[in-house]
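Proteins fold reproducibly. Look at a concrete instance:
___
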Amino acid sequence: MITLTRLNAMNLKVRDLDASLAWYARHFGFTPRYAVEGGIVIAVNGIELVLSPHDNPGAPLADPRRAGL
């Protein structure tokens, strides 16, 4: 597991909210904190991210060799 020490605010659009919650929990230790309009806030070590559903969940996946941050 990767231990995060610092991260600026991020709102991540995801294709599958439940799968993304599980992935961030498994790999980084994030846990759900509270719901916000259109998404959910997850947190670990004082770091919060917002996961929200992608506007077009049927869109093709991005090239896995590229980072989209």
